Amino acid sequence: MSAIATYSLVATLAFIIILIFVKGFNALSWDMVLKTPKGGYYYGGEGGVLNAIVGSLYISIGATLIAALIGIPAALYINVHLARYKRTQNAIRYILDALWGVPSIVYGAFGFALMLFMGMNASLLAGIITVALLILPIVVRTFDEVLCTIPKGLHEATLALGSTRAEMAFKIIFKQGFPGLITALLLAFGRGIGDAASVLFTAGYTDLIPTNLDEPAATLPLAIFFQLSSPIPEVRERAFAAAAILTIIILIISLIARFLSKMHSKTNLK
Amino acid sequence: MLYRRKVIDRVSTIWMIVSISIIVLLPVIIGIGLYIKASPLLEIKSLGQLLGSTIWLPNEKEFGFLPFILGSLYVTLISFCLAVPVCLLSAIYLTQFAPKQFMNFMHPVIDILAGLPSVIYGVWGVIVIVPFISNHVAPFFGVKSSGYTILAGGIVLAIMCIPYILNMLIEVFNTIPTGLKEASLSLGATFWEMVKHVVIRRGGAGIISAFGLGIAKAFGETMAVMMVVGNMVQIKFSLFDAGYPLPALIANNYGEMLSIPMYDSALMFAALLLFVIILLINLIFRYFIYKTKSNE
After folding, report:
1. Which positions ≥6 away from B6 have C-beta within 8 Å?
2. Residues in Cβ contact with B100 at an 8 Å cutoff, skipping those fewer than 6 apart
3. CB-based contact A109 B34, cutoff 8 Å
4. Of B123, B268, B275, which is closest to A240 when you measure between CB atoms?
5. B274 at the A interface (CB within 8 A)?
6. Which CATH number fits domain B66-295: 3.30.230.10, 3.90.180.10, 1.10.3720.10, 3.40.190.10?
7. Percent of chain A at pLDDT above 90?
8. Is residue B275 a contact partner of residue A133, using CB atoms and an 8 Å limit?
9. Check: complex ipTM more than 0.95
10. I need a surface site. Which of A111, B41, B63, B275 has the fewest CB within 10 A?
11. In this predicted model, what pLDDT tens digit does every residue of A164-177 receive, in sequence order?
C-alpha cells in the first residue's frame, strides 16, 4: 500500500512538471524572452515578458547580496564567537527556524509598512529589502548547517597559532564553508525569484525594465498571476510560457546548487 | 601590526553583532511594525468584535474576520486530510522498503519540488484541478460548480505541502537506529509490524512536528490558494463553494487598500493575525523537534 502511495505521488509530481512544460513550450518563443510588453499586450498583442524576467533577476540578486551581507557574519558569529555557549546558539537557531516558517505574505505586509514608514513608493528597492528579509533566515540557517560540520580541532588549531577570532572566522572557517555558502545563496536566490506574495505590495508592476532603484519593477511570478487571470486565451497561453521560464530558472539554480554541494563534500576536511 | 589586527578584529566583531541582532530582533520588529499599522482599527473595535463578526463591509467600517479565518482553517484541514496518509505511507516506503538507489534518486527530486514556487502549483491547479472539479467531480455529486472551490484549494495545497512534509518525515525516519529495527525483526515481528511498533512509535514526536510545520505552511500559503479558491466572502461548509482564506484577503486587496479609510489597518491586522498564529505553531513544533533531537 505504501508503494502505491509513493508511486502515485511520483506520478502526480512528474505530471505537474511535464504539464507545465508541454503547455508552456506551445506558447514559448524568443519573443517571449527577449521583448518587453508592447501596446495591447494584455489583449493578445505583441511582446514578451522580458520586463518581468529582468525585474525578477534584479530583485533576487539584490536581495541575495543584502542577505549575504547580513547573513554571513551572523552565521560566522554563531559558530565562532558563540561556540562555547550552546544554549545561546540553540536559541538563535530556534528563532531562525521559526522565522523560516513565516509565510511570505506577512513579509510582504511588513515590507509595505516599512516602505510607508520610510516614505518610499512601490519600487525596486522596497522589493529588494522585503525579499532580503524573507531569505535572510534561509541563508543563515543553511550556511550555519554547513559550518556546524567543521571539526572543532580546526578552531582550536587556529586559535593556538595565535590568530584573532575575526581572522579565524573569515580566513579559516569562511573558507572551509565557502562551497556551502554558495549552496545557501543559490537556495535563497531560488526562493526569492519564485516568491510572489512578498513583492506584490512592495515592488509594484510595470511594463518597463527598471533603470533605477526607485522605479517599480515587474516580477515573473506576478506576471504569471496577472496573465492567468485574463479572460483572453492567448494571454493565458503566455502565462503558461512564463511559468515554464520560471520553472527552468529554478531547475537550473537547484541543479547548480546540488552539483556544488557534491563538490563541497569531496574537497573539504572532515 | 598588532594594533591593526586588533582593530580589524573589533570592527568585524561589531559587524557580526549588528547582523545577528538584526536577525534575532526581526520577529519582534515585524510584530511591532504590523501592530502599529493595525492599531487604528484596534482602537475602534475590540479584538472579540473583529474575530467574531461575520460582516465584511470595508466601506462602512465593518471588519469581521470570521469568514476568512474559517476559510483558512477549512482549506488547511482539507489539505491536511489529503496529505497525511500519502506522506506517511510514502515516507515509510522510501525509507524502509524501497531499494537504496530509488531513495537516492527521489531525495533530490523531492528537494527540487519543495523549492518550486507556489505560483507554478497555482498554474497547475488552474489548468488541471479546476476544470476537473467543475466537469467531473461536482456533477458526480449532483452539484453545479465553477471549479474555483475550497476543494480545489485544498487539493493544490496538499500537493504543494507533500514534498515539504515528506522531506522532514524522511529525516525523522532516518534517525531511527538500525539496531532497534533489527532487534524487533529478530524477535519474530513481520516487517510491517516492525514499522508499526518501532518506526512509528519511535518517530512519533518527529512525525507530529513534521505535520505541524506542514499545517503552518499550508495556513500561510498565498498565491497558489488564491488562484483556485474562488475568493468570495461567505461562510459555507460545502466543498463545492468558493472560500476566502486570510492570506488571499491580504494579497487581493492591496490595490484598494489606501483608498478606503481603515482598510489598510484591517489588512495589516490580518497579516498580524497570520504572523502570530504561524509563529506560535512553528515555535511549538520546533520545540518538539529540538527536544527529540537532544534526547538522542
Report:
1. A164
2. none
3. yes
4. B123
5. yes
6. 1.10.3720.10
7. 4
8. no
9. no
10. B41
11. 888 888 888 888 88
Neighbour-count burial of A67, counting CB atoms closer than 10 A to its CB (0-12 exposed, 13-18 middle, 19+ buried): buried
CB contact under 8 A, A195 and B254: no
Round the average pLDDT of chain B to a whole number and report it.
81
Residue B65 phi/psi, 5-degree rounding, is -95, 0
Q: Nearest by CB to B23, which of A136, A164, A250?
A: A136
Three-state DSSP class for residue B243 = strand
CB-nearest partner of B12 from A166, A193, A243 = A166
Query: A70: which chain B residues are within 8 Å (Cβ-Cβ)?
Result: 19, 22-23
A103–B278 CB contact, under 8 Å: yes
Mutate: best of B2, B123, B146, B225, partner A, most A CBs <10 A: B123
Q: How does pLDDT run across A176-226, given as a tens digit for each residue?
A: 888 888 888 888 888 888 887 888 877 777 777 777 777 777 888 888 888
- Residue A65 pLDDT: 92
Q: How far apart are CA B272 and CA A110, in angstroms?
A: 9
Instruction: Please provide the CATH number assigned to the domain covering A2-267.
Output: 1.10.3720.10
CA dihedral A242, A244, A245, A250 (to 10 degrees): 130
- The residue of chain B with its CA nearest to that of A243 is B120
**Average of per-residue pLDDT across A134-143:** 89
Measured CA to CA in angstroms, residue B291 lies from A90, B134, B205 at distances of 11, 46, 9
Give counts: helices (H), strands (E), chain B. Answer: 15, 2
**Of A229, A206, A181, A227, whose CA–CA distance to A79 is shortest?**
A181
d(CA B218, CA B230): 17
**Residue ranges per domain, chain B?**
2-50, 66-295
Assigned C-alpha cell, B178: 538500525
- pLDDT of A119 reads 78
Taking the C-alpha atoms of residue A206 and residue A193, their distance in angstroms, rounded to an integer, is 17
Confidence check: pLDDT of A270 > 60: no
Yes or no, beta carbons of A254 and B111 under 8 Å apart: yes
The answer to whether A71 contacts B223, with C-beta atoms less than 8 Å apart, is: no
Q: Which three cell numbers stand for residue B160?
A: 504543494
Interchain contact A199–B (C-beta under 8 A): no
CA distance A38 to A25: 21
- Give the mean pLDDT of B80-102: 83
pTM, entire model: 0.85
Supply A224's cell numbers. Answer: 504569471
Spatial neighbors of A196 by CB under 8 A, at least 6 apart, are A104, A219, A221, A222, A225, B117, B118, B119, B222, B223
Residue tagged 532516518 (cell numbers): B174
Bridge partners of B230, per DSSP, are: B243
